[in-house]
Each structure stands twice: as structure tokens, then as C-alpha cells.
Amino acid sequence: MDPFQNRRWVIILTIFTIGVIFIVRLLYIQVLDDKWSKRSEEITHSEKSLKPSRGLIYDRNGKLLVEASQVYDIYVFPDEIGEVDTNELANFFDLTREEFDTKLNKAIAYASYKPSIFIEGMNKEDYSKIAFQLPSKKGFHEERNTQRGYPEHVAAHVLGYIGIINEKEYLADKASEEPYYKMTDYIGKTGIELVYEKELRGRRGVVSYLKDRLGNEKVDIEQESAVAGHNLYTTLDLDLQKYAESLMHNKIGCVVAIEPATGEILSMVSAPFYDPELFVGRDLGKNYAKIAKEDTLNLKPLINKSIYNDTYRPGSIFKLVQALIGMQEGVITANTPFACNKSLINCHNHPSPTNVSIAIQHSCNPYFYQVYKRLIQRGEDPSVYKDSRIGIEKWAKSVRSFGLGVKLNTDLTGIKSGNIPDANYYDNEFPPNKPYGKYSWAFSTIYSNSIGEGEIGVAPIQMANLAAIIANRGYYYTPHLVRKIGENGQKREEYLEKHYTVVDAKYFEPIVNAMEQVVVNGTARRAQIDSISVCGKTGTVQNATTNDHSVFIAFAPKENPKIAVAVYVEYGTWGGTWAAPIASLVIEKYLNGKLSEKGKKKELRVLNETILTKNQVFK
Amino acid sequence: MDKWFLALYLALVVMGLSTVYASSLGDDIGSLFSWKEDYGKQFYWILISLFMGIMILLMEGTFLKNSSYIIYGVVVFLLVLVLFMPSINGAHSWFKIGSFTIQPAEFAKVACAMAFAKYMSTTGVRIENFKTKLNVFLLLFCPMVLIVLEPDPGTGLVFMSFIFVMYREGLSGNVLLLGFFSLIIGVISVYIASFETVEINNAAIEAITASGEEFNPRDYVELARPDGYFSSNYILAGLVILLGVLGFAVTRIFVLPRYRKNYYPAIIWSSIFAVLFILSINWAYDNVFQNRHRTRFQIQFGLKLDRKDAGYNIYQALSAIGSGEASGKGYLQGTLSNNKFKHVPEQSTDFIFCSWAEERGFVGSLVLICVFVAFLLRAIIIAERQRSVYTRIFAYSIASIMFFHFLINLGMVIGLVPVIGIPLPFFSKGGSAILGFSAMVFILLRLDAERKDVLR
What we know:
The complex is a heterodimer.
Chain A: H1 7-32, H2 35-44, E1 45-50, E2 57-58, E3 64-76, H3 86-92, H4 97-110, E4 116-122, H5 124-131, E5 140-149, H6 156-159, E6 162-164, H7 167-175, E7 186-188, H8 191-195, H9 197-201, E8 205-211, E9 217-224, E10 232-234, H10 238-248, E11 253-259, E12 264-271, H11 284-294, H12 305-308, H13 318-329, H14 356-362, H15 365-376, H16 384-400, H17 423-428, H18 443-446, H19 460-471, E13 475-477, E14 482-485, E15 498-500, H20 508-521, E16 535-541, E17 549-556, E18 563-569, H21 579-592, H22 597-608
Parallel strand pairs in A: 2-10
Antiparallel strand pairs in A: 1-8, 2-3, 3-4, 3-5, 6-7, 8-9, 10-14, 11-12, 11-18, 13-15, 16-17, 17-18
Helix pairs in contact in A: 3-4, 10-21, 13-15, 14-20, 21-22
Chain B: H1 3-24, H2 38-58, H3 61-66, H4 68-82, E1 95-97, E2 100-102, H5 104-120, H6 130-149, H7 153-157, H8 162-168, H9 173-210, H10 232-254, H11 257-287, H12 291-300, H13 312-323, H14 352-384, H15 389-413, H16 431-449
Antiparallel strand pairs in B: 1-2
Helix pairs in contact in B: 1-2, 1-14, 2-16, 4-5, 4-6, 5-6, 5-15, 5-16, 8-15, 9-11, 10-11, 13-14, 14-15, 15-16
């Protein structure tokens, strides 16, 4: 008999016990604990976004200003590259060894354990050369993106540019109510691209799918398609914009043209300017630095002076505002005469004005000195100091109704308000280091304001808006750049609202007539156009040591005006010398579509003169 | 012929084939009969196995018994020969004939079972004798070493399973007990050492974070326990000594003086052995093992979650099994462990259970374990009703071999046992394996059919 027979039970029990242990363990993993099934979803499920195409930007006549094309950004994940032949990789990406190392080190410095941008904005042809082999390069992958193209190469300041979202923008978006962006997205950085970012970008779609071990998409679970961004129709007139840029390309200053009846900006030039194509794709950073470096004269080509440079003094064009407010306030009438008394403030030789129109026609300084004096010192208080305070408050309020000294709500960023000084300003802010203080200044301290000098600061867009106000005889629409969002869209509602000045329409007639006379036989005879009655006003902004700035605002035709223009040419001396002919060329081109013989002569003179230095001598 | 055993075998084969099909299916649904696909090959290997089974059933039991040593000799010869074959996947384990490969190690198991049974059933051979132990050791050691040399340590380890048969045939139970307790003590002391290491590292990481520095897990180097660290393993050793003293006292008080000397050596020696064992493991943990080994221990004990490097396989396997939940995703609906998604490594060989558990859920897991346990118990029932010692030992041998596979393979995929590459019988893809395991089953069926005709 087998003496060890009973040992079978030990073995049977062992097998049984192991079976039970396994069943309990599996019960735990598969049923009781959902930890592993959740982890399995992390392994298998993935999502990818479908990028919407960015909206295009057109001019007011439907001509394409900004196009969108597909590009590919290459991202690198430094920890995953592994041991590879660096020279071969550099070759593969068509980079020199140094470029490759710099880019890679930059990525490593950012974070070696997450992806960062390696090559930005690779175009389709370049990408197609590497597309086939890219998946086999460990640690590199591509992201599809939209790149801008600028077929007309104009209006860089207005259109702005797009670029990969930076950390600051990303965090700000994260903190907002509806976070949208990913670290690889493009975003509008300046101009219309920035202001209309939400409308242009569209909405991202999402596909969630099951992936295999290598991350390949295997089975789609759910899909939400992307919605393309809206196309924008701007108020710009492409031909006019191009023409204005050609006139300004060798000068410093601005041209802003507005359609008075709607407030639509027809053209906005800030010179010097740059080709928007420079801010596209992989060379953005390089070109940005290059532009800054080449700017040896410190002309700041990247800045849109027409909205940003609000320290421009308006000069004599401000007399228009003084005259209008003077009449409205009743301190003068249309026929009030003042002697051209050069002991008050210097002037040039002309007959003493017998009414407001003649004063404007001759741009008489002493006349407006006296108008301003009556506005500031009204005799409401025996103390000149207290009286001046009351006067300036009332005056400043009136001037601000012209959109001066206040921030215009134009659809651009970086708009400045300019400066219309009030009592507080002289009490606490001016002069910057040692303000006058309360009751220690009076009209005699601030009289330079009377002729648009002194502490008045106005941005060119505000000057153009002033021209539009006079053209409209007393009201304006906030100047804006987009007239239609989407094919069948509207402009923003705030641009449909009329803003009235404090001055009644009847006071505008003598001023409009005077402006006509300025062109017909006053300081702006260079602005004459044979077939069109142009109304304008020159300004010569005094500089102590350099050439004066040349300023001119105008609108045309006199009745039913179609265009209002402001031109500012730095160091251009008299307002009539450069600003007036440039404005008249812009008007003629816009209204007639072509130039007369006289116009062509004018054009030749403007195109041939380069005004980039401060003390240029003109022949 | 035992119908139950045959039925359970066929059930396992069908379950296995369906799982091989599911787990090696790629993007396209292919035909089971396709030569080019893994599942097609497996299907034809099963047909070959069944054909071989019929051949075996037609043989005489005595012929099989008498050819045991010859088969053993041939297999050992093949194991030597295979070492000179070109390596496939870094191991010299296969003979390559066309697109088929043959793995002699799979036949070594059945050959050893036959030779072992033949030797142990020889008149006068008793496992209690030292000479027998030595011969058995040599008999098993030859193929085992040759297999480890290939290298295929997992399959080599399978030969340890003969210890169960030896126990059944009279090997002292103390050997099993010794092994069992060594295992427990070893696991406890490694666990204590791992736990302490993790604590030290966590404290260090916390200190870095508290100091305001950015913590980058990739730059962090694991700290070992410092020199002179007072490990809880010392306390464990102290407890063992205390237990020994207690045992000594209990013997002294309750056992009659004439029997006491039978107990003393056992108590003293086992206490000394246990203390030395604990202390040497504690020392080896810091001084012999390297960081990567320590990391594996930590992952095994669940003290550390690693889904990238050392813990990748098991993390993916557990995720796949867990994703099956109670009732599974449905046949061919798996999203991790098949050739389409490939999230689980070795999804149709060593980790094939993942595919089954993912698609059939806990219900399927329960069925698989029950069928397997029933199959093993049936083999033991067959063994115990034999008059022939050869048949009994052979039956126990194959039950032990398959139990060992079942224990290690399933234990591995559900994270209870360290990762050791050994297949799950009848499930894992592989022609030699299905052929070898089928041979075991059919030889046993043939021998059992003759149980009334033989006396010993």
C-alpha cells in the first residue's frame, strides 16, 4: 500500500487555494476597483483638435488684403530624441549644425520633458520634402497651422500680424471665463488681427479616438467639426492706401483719410512703415529684430504713429476749433474783428482780419490769442486765477466733444487720447517735474494753447476726425476699420452711433467757407484741384531747433463731402509745403481715380523729396 | 479513456485558439485558415497536435513507458544542438524550418516527466535515499541547465515543479516547509527594506519641494538606505530569536524529557537559519542589488507606480485586465491587448490572459480559472486511481508542470508574481508548446486507458 497517499490532499488544497487567490485578485482588479479601467482609458483614448481656418481680410471693395495658407510647425520633444546622428538630423531639417544646436538648446532650456517649437511656419513645399520621414524621427512632430500672406504688401500697421501664443497671452486666456487656446495656437498680436481675434479665429473642432501603442489613430469615437473664422471686410480702400503709402515712403509722418458720412477709415498710413510679409512664419523674430536694428535714425517704423503718437501738436489747424467754440460760447460772432497785434503773439504780415473767416484764411495768431483769452477769462470771478480755472474747464469740455483729448474707440489697440489740458492738468501735472499748483496759473501762462501749440497734443487720427466733423458740420462717427464681419455681417454697433459736438451746425458755415478760401488763395494753394472744391487748413508746428512740422487737414468736395484727410509730415516746415499737396493728391486720387496734369506735377515733386532729417533745406 | 479529462483539454484548446485569434488580429479581420497569420499557424499546430494525439492513443502504453529514456536522450541531444543554432530574439531556443520554428525546451518537459516517472517507478528506487535524490537531481538538472543557457530562464524554472511530485512520492515535508517559510521570510524582509527605501526617498523629495526648487523626476536619482541605518529587519530578526526562545521554553515545559532532544535541533537550527537569512537579505538589498532591482521590488510590492520603464508591462497588463470589468468588452472588441492596438506587450504569448480577461471580463476570468483548476484536479484524480506507479508519477508530473505554468503566468499578469516569461498552457501562441502540452495529455489518456491491464 502507498504510505504517502494522503499527501494528495496537500497538493489538491494548494491548487485550490491558488485558484481562489487568483479569483479574489481578479474580482478586485476587474469589478471592485475601477482604478485600472480608468487607467486603461488614459492609455487608449486620445483627442486631437481640428484647427479652423482663419478668416481672410478684404478691403472695402472686396479686394484681398490678407490671405491664409497652410503651414506646418515642427515641434521637438528633447527627451525623446535619443541617440542619433545630429549632423544627419540637421541635414534632414535643412539646417546647419549651428542652427540646429541653437534651436535644440533653446528647446532644452525651455523644458526637456515637454514639446516646444522647433521650426515655425514651414511651407507646404518644404514640409512635403520631410513629411514622409518625419514620423520616424523620434522626438519630432508637426502641427498644422494657418499662416498669413499679404498679396498687396500694404497697411502693415493696421492689419497687424499673428504669431504663436506666448506664455503671457496663454496664461491670460487660461484665467478668462472661456479658455480657448493651446500652447501651439496662433493668435493675433497687433492691429485688426488682435482686435477681431475672436471673429477671425473661428472655433476649433475635436475628434476623440482610440489610439494604438505608437499613438496612431485607430478608431474615431466622436467628432465635432471645426467652424471657420469670419472673413473681415475692412473700410480701407486698397488703391488709396497703396497710393498714400507711396507718397509717404520717404517721409516721417501720417496720412489718415476718413469717409465723413460713416466714419470709415479709407486709408491709414504711418511712415516709415514695413512690409507685413516680413512678419510671417519662421522669420518673424529675426525680421522684428532686423527692423529695430536698421532703424538708425530712431524713426520707430513698428509704431502706428497715426493712433499712438498723441504728442503731435496740431498747430494752426486748432484755430478751427477755437473759432467754432468761440462762436458757440458767444465770445465772438462770425463778424467779430480783432487787430493783428503782434505785441501779443508774433504773426506774419497780412491785413488785420475783420471777421473769423478772414482770420482763419490768414491764420492770424493774435486773433485767436484774443478769442482764447475771452474763452478762458470770462470775468466770472474777480481773481484771474480762479477765473481761468472756470474758463479752462468749460473750454476743455467743449474741445473734447470734438474727439480731441479723449480716447477714440477705434478698432485698433494702442490708441492714445492726446492731451487737452484742463485745470487739474496745470495744478498737478504740468510742467512734469514741478506742476504750477492751484491758483498759480492764469491765461497768461497758457496762451500758447490758443494757436494749437503749448500743451495740446493730438494724434493724427483725431486730426482727420476733426476734418470729418467740419465736413459733417458738427458730428462724427467714431473712425473705424471694419465695415462687415462675415459675408453678410454688420459692423460693430458702436460705429453706427452719431457723436455730436457742442457746436451748432450754423456756426460751421463761416468756417467751411474760410477753409475753402485757405485753399483758393490762402496758405494752402498747393492743395488746389481744378475740378474739386477742397476745404482745408494748414498748420505749422513750431520746433525750437529743427524744421517745423507740416500739418494739413482737408475735406472735399465742399458740399456733400466724400473724404476727410489729415496729413502730418515731420520736419516738413510750412503746412502748405508738403502736407497740403499730399492731402490734395490723396483727395484727387480718391475722388477722380486719376490725376490731372497739375496733379501729376505735384505728385512728382512729392515723390522726389525725401524728408527724414530734422534740418533739411528745401529748394 | 477519461472523457472528462479529454473534454477539459478540448475546452482549453478551443478557448486558447479563440484568444490567439483575438489577440493577434490586426486591422483586418483575417481567415482562421490563413497560413500567413499567427492564428492560422496556431490552428494548424492544433490540428497537428490532435493528429499526434490520435497516434499516441494508438500506441501501447508499455511502448511509451519503455521509450521514456530514449525520448529523454533525444531531447537532451536536441537541447545541446539548439545552442548552436542562430539566435532569434537574442536566444538560441529555436530550430528554424522555413517559416516554422521548433522549440525543443517545450518537449523537454514531457520527456523529463516520462524519464522521471520511469526512474522513480523502478523497483527499489525510493526518494528517501540520498542516491535517488542525486540521480533525480541530475536527471532534471541536465535539461534545466541547457535551457537556462539558451537563455530561457522561465522555462528552466519549470523543472522546479517536480518538487511537488517528489513530495507526493515521499520527499520529507520539511523540504517544502523550509521552502515555504524561506519564501515568506524573504518576501517580508525585502518588503520591509523596500518600504524603508521608499520612505527615505519620499522624505528627500519632500525636502526638495519644500525648499522651493523645481522637482524634476527625470533628474532625481534614487537614494539607497544610508550606512548604519537601523532597519526594521533587525527587529524582525529579534522577533525570530524571541520566537525560538519561546519554542524552547514551551518544549521544556510541555514535552516529555525523552522526546525533547528531537525538537531542540529543529528549533535551534531553524532560528539561526531564519535570522541569518533575514540579515543577509537586508545586507544584500543595499549592497548587492542595484537601483534598477530595487525599483523592480518597489513596483512589485505596489510601493511605486511606474508606467514607463520597469513597470511598463505590468501596468499595461493590469489596465487591460481591469478594463474588462465584470462582463468584458465582447469578443474581438478589445482596445488594448491585440495586434491592432498593441498596448499590451507579448499580447498573444506570455500576456495572452490580458486579451481573454479584457474581452470576457471577470465572468471569463472565473470560467478560465475554474476550467484550469478542474483540469488539474482531474489529472490528480486520474493519478490516484492508478495501480501503475509509472502512470501515477507521470500524471503527477504533468499536473505539477501545468500547475506551475498556471501559477507563474497568471500570477505574473495580475501582478502577484515577478515578471517571468513563461507561457499559459493551451492559450499562449506557439506550436511547440501546444504540441508538448498535448503530448502530455494524450500520453496520460493512453496510460490511463490501460490502468486495469497493468499491475504495477
